[in-house]
């Protein structure tokens, strides 16, 4: 049995749950409340020193980093395969997945915090309590970024480059999907698994106007949503107050985001 340490709304956790669902694999769930800092519990840090989710334990072996977990799962449970057989398509898959660890995941986290999640951080906290929460981030770069984003929202110095990176992601996806059904060719792969949570986050944040002129992504996302794994791995784990917060604050900030992107 696989043990999964995760969170319902975590994009990285969602990637791993999609892979498990596509493989038809059940898991023992350890669901963390990230706002309560469950991921900083010393017992968990002993498993994952980065203090982030997800982490899996399989046959007594600990694996973390979502992209690494997904490749591991596709290796130990090879059917159905989520990696293209042809070397070129497999290389394309890895290039897509690699982007997430080279700033794209951070960009998504930034727009999420600036538009919506900052309000969760601030709610009911004194300035001293808020500082303690933000100081709890293990990575100093992430700590600095989150502090700026929570305190300043879409006026954060990190927001504009982050939303521009998301726009580039969508442009690249649109161009690629014009030539094939899926991101790494004509078969669904770990590239599609990896990018599902990030496009879904754009939609949840009420910035789906960014898809209006990108019909290939809309078609791709409709096909993604029709897969059984989307419900099993994402919808069934959605947290209602997170969804409502993203909807409310996303609509409030939509025109401001459009201005920053240059659509107004």
Q: Would you kindly provide a written description of the structure presented here, covering whatever features stand out?
A:
By secondary structure, this protein is of the alpha+beta class. It has 2 domains: 2-76, Glutaredoxin, CATH 3.40.30; 87-261, Glutathione S-transferase Yfyf (Class Pi), Chain A, domain 2. 61% of the residues lie in helices and 7% in strands. It has 11 helices and 4 strands. It has helices at 11-23, 42-47, 66-76, 87-122, 127-135, 140-152, 159-177, 190-204, 215-226, 228-233, 240-261, and strands spanning 2-6, 27-31, 55-58, 61-64. A 4-stranded mixed β-sheet has the order 2-1-3-4, covered by helices on one side. β3 (55-58) and β4 form a beta hairpin. α4 (87-122) runs parallel beside α8 (190-204). The longest helix is centred in the middle third of the chain and has 36 residues, at 87-122. It is globular. The model has no long low-confidence stretch (mean pLDDT 95).
- The portion of residues assigned to helices is 55-70%
- What is the chain-wise order of helices and strands? EHEHEEHHHHHHHHH
The spatial strand order of the largest sheet comes to 2-1-3-4
Percent strand: 5-15%
CATH class of the largest domain: Mainly Alpha
Largest sheet: 4 strands, mixed
- 3D shape: globular
Q: Determine the CATH topology of the largest domain.
A: Glutathione S-transferase Yfyf (Class Pi), Chain A, domain 2
Work out the number of β strands.
4
Determine the N-to-C terminus distance.
52 Å
Number of domain units: 2
């Amino acid at each position: 049995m696989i043990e999964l340490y995760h969170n319902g709304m975590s994009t990285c956790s969602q990637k791993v749950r999609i892979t498990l669902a596509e493989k038809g694999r059940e898991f023992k769930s350890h669901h963390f409340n990230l706002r309560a800092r469950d991921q900083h519990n010393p017992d968990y840090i002993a498993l994952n020193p980065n203090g982030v989710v997800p982490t899996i334990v399989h046959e007594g072996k600990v694996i973390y980093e979502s992209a690494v977990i997904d490749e591991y799962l596709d290796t130990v449970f090879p059917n159905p395969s989520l990696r293209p057989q042809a070397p070129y398509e497999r290389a394309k898959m890895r290039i897509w997945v690699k982007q997430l660890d080279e700033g794209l995941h951070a960009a998504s986290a930034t727009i999420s915090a600036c538009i919506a999640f900052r309000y969760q951080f601030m709610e009911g906290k004194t300035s001293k309590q808020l500082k303690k929460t933000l100081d709890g981030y293990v990575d100093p770069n992430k700590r600095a970024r989150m502090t700026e984003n929570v305190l300043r929202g879409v006026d954060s110095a990190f927001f504009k480059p982050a939303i521009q990176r998301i726009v580039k992601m969508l442009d690249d996806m649109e161009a690629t999907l014009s030539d094939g059904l899926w991101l790494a060719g004509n078969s669904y792969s770990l590239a599609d698994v990896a990018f599902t949570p990030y496009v879904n986050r754009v939609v949840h944040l009420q910035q789906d106007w960014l898809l209006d002129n990108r019909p290939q992504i809309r078609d791709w996302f409709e096909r993604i949503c029709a897969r059984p794994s989307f419900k099993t791995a994402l919808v069934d784990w959605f947290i209602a107050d997170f969804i409502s917060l993203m909807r409310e604050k996303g609509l409030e900030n939509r025109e401001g985001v459009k201005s920053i992107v240059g659509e107004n």
